[in-house]
Specification:
The protein is α/β, with parallel strands linked by helices. It is built from 10 helices and 12 strands. The strands form 3 sheets. A 7-stranded mixed β-sheet has the order 1-2-12-9-8-6-7. A 3-stranded parallel β-sheet has the order 4-3-5, sandwiched between helices. The radius of gyration is 19 Å and the shape is globular. The structure holds nicotinamide-adenine-dinucleotide. Nicotinamide-adenine-dinucleotide (NAD) binds next to helix 10.
C-alpha cells in the first residue's frame, strides 16, 4: 500500500528528482480507515470547533473540517464567540464543552482574540476531548511512549515518513523547529522509531553542520525557503511542514520552509501545498475516534 502512496515524478521531470510524498493519497487512506472504523464501532463522535472572532483562514478551515467530518460520518458543529471575547469567556466556553457529555472532541481554532492565551485555553480542555493532542497531558503521554492523542501535525510527519517505506532505525534525523506542538513532538516520535535526533532552532550556532549528517530532515520553522538544496544530503528524506503565505503572480499562495529546488537533491520530498497539510487534517479524525474511545472506556 505504501508503495502506491509515493509517486515518482519521472513522468514530468528527469528520473533523478526526489520521489514526491503526496499528502492526498495518504490522507484518503486514513480517512477511509476512519470512516470504516466509525461505521463498524458505531462511534458517536461529536466534534465542536471553538472559534472566537473572525479570521478568513480559520473560517475556510472550519468549512473544510465540516465537509470532511460529514465524509467520515461524524457530527461537527461550531461554537462561535465574538472577537471581543475575554480569556474568561473562552475558558467558560471550554468548561461548558468539557461538561457536555454529547461533545466528544473539541478543536480550538487559532488565532484566538488578542489577550487570550492559546496555551491557557488548551490546558483548560478535558484531556480526553483533546483531539488536537495539544493538552499537556497528551504531550506528557508522548514523552512516556503511551500517547493516544498525538498532535496531528507531528503524527502527519510520521505518516509521510512511513510512506517512504524506509526503516528509520539508526538514521540521523534533524528537526528544525522546537515548538511545543510540532518540532518537539516530532523529535520524540522520531526517537521512538530509533532515529538519532538533533533539534535545531533559532539559537543553534551552525544548522548547516547538523544538516550535513542528516539522513532525514523535518523542517518546521515557518520561514519560506529556509532549507537550501546545498544543505541537503543527496538521497535524504525531507519533510517540509512549513505553510507560509506568499504572493505569487499577485495571488496568495502557500510556500514551504524548504526551497523547492531541494527536490533536485533529496531522495524523498513532501510538496507544499499538498504534502503534510492534508495528512494533518485526516489525522484529526483518527484522533476524534480515539478520544471517543477514551471516553467510553474502549
Ligand atoms: P513556531 O513559530 O511556533 O516555531 C518555529 C520554530 O522554528 C521555533 O522553535 C524556532 O526556534 C524555529 N526557527 C525559526 N526560524 C529558524 C531558523 N532560521 N533556524 C532555525 N530554527 C528556526 O511554528 P510552528 O507552530 O512549529 O509551525 C512551524 C511551521 O509549520 C509554520 O510554517 C506553520 O504554519 C507550519 N504548520 C503546518 C502545519 C501543517 O499541517 N502543515 C501545522 C502546524 C504548523
Amino acid at each position: 500500500v505504501l508503495d502506491v502512496l509515493v509517486h515518482r515524478r519521472n513522468d514530468i521531470v528527469p528520473w533523478d528528482m526526489a520521489e514526491l510524498i503526496k499528502g492526498a493519497p495518504i490522507a484518503a487512506a486514513i480517512e477511509a480507515s476512519v470512516r470504516e472504523e466509525v461505521s463498524r464501532s458505531g462511534a458517536k463522535v461529536h466534534l465542536v470547533a471553538l472559534q472566537a472572532g473572525e479570521d478568513p483562514a480559520s473560517d475556510a478551515y472550519v468549512r473544510r473540517q465540516a465537509q470532511a467530518a460529514e465524509r467520515v460520518g461524524m457530527r461537527y458543529s461550531v461554537e462561535r464567540l465574538p472577537a471581543s471575547a475575554s480569556e474568561t469567556a473562552v475558558l467558560d466556553a471550554v468548561a461548558r464543552l468539557n461538561r457536555d457529555p454529547s461533545v466528544t472532541g473539541v478543536i480550538i481554532q487559532l488565532p484566538l482574540p488578542p489577550g487570550v492565551r492559546a496555551e491557557a485555553v488548551q490546558e483548560a480542555l478535558d484531556p480526553k476531548k483533546d483531539v488536537e493532542g495539544v493538552h499537556p497531558a497528551s504531550l506528557g503521554a508522548l514523552v512516556g511512549d503511551h500517547a493516544r492523542l498525538v498532535p496531528c501535525t507531528a503524527a502527519a510527519v510520521m505518516a509521510c515518513l512511513a510512506a517512504t517505506g524506509k526503516d528509520l532505525t539508526g538514521l540521523n534525523a534533524v528537526v528544525i523547529g522546537r515548538s511545543r506542538i510540532v518540532g518537539r513532538p516530532v523529535a520524540l516520535l522520531l526517537v521512538q522509531k530509533n532515529a538519532t535526533v538533533t533539534v535545531c532552532h533559532t539559537k543553534t550556532r551552525d544548522v548547516a553542520r547538523h544538516l550535513a549528517a542528516a539522513d532525514v530532515v523535518v523542517v518546521a520553522a515557518g520561514r519560506t525557503a529556509l532549507l537550501k538544496p546545498d544543505q541537503v544530503r543527496p538521497g535524504s528524506i525531507v519533510i517540509d511542514v512549513g505553510t507560509n503565505e506568499v504572493i505569487r503572480d499577485g495571488k496568495r499562495s502557500l510556500a514551504g520552509d524548504a526551497d523547492p529546488a531541494v527536490a533536485e537533491v533529496a531522495g524523498f520530498f513532501t510538496p507544499v501545498p499538498g504534502g503534510v497539510g492534508p495528512v494533518t487534517v485526516a489525522l484529526l479524525w483518527k484522533n476524534a475516534v480515539e478520544a471517543w474511545r477514551l471516553q467510553v472506556g474502549r
